[in-house]
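Collaborator request log, item 7. Partner lab (contact: R.S.) asked for a structural prediction of 2'-5' RNA ligase family protein to inform their binding assays.
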Amino acid sequence: MGTVTLGVSIAVPEPYGSFLQKRREGFGDPHAHGIPTHVTLLPPTEVDASSLPAIERHLAEVAAAGRPFRMRLSGTGTFRPLSPVVYVNVVEGSASCAWLQKRVRDGSGPVARELQFPYHPHVTVAHGIAEEAMDRAFTELADYEAEWTIEGFALYEQGEDGIWRLERHFPFGADAFGADDVSAAVPRQDDAGIRSSWTGSPGCP
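Returned to partner:
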């Protein structure tokens, strides 16, 4: 059956997703139009195609144990000079993202893997472009704020054409939706393709 390349992420919902994607385009990032705004949980990982059913079962189990949580974005950060990336900070919800990604990559699971760098949840707004444009992104989004409720995550697969496509959405456990601290979620960002520039590093788009 060969191999496939998979990734797992949390989509940034509308209206925030499209806004940040358009700003990224405006800074001159050539990959922006093909990358829906997201927070990575599992960077691109090559697996045997025959393992897909086991992977989906594993992700469903992770999601079933999860609970909706608030995510808040505020201001900008950068991985420069280590990696040419400017991002919007995840200032609330980062611990939950870390919990999820650790369980997605668990050593006993079907997508066990080590990361090249320590996990740092973020939303990329500029990657691999001119320094002047990176500086613009860092400055112009310094006051950016957004907040919503995360209710699940999604599995994507990279096609032979280099486009990432949504395979399945995994909502958190049904019993979690009665939690007192959960408010109505903002509608999820439209599931457009994610191109092959999505990489697993501090530069993860």
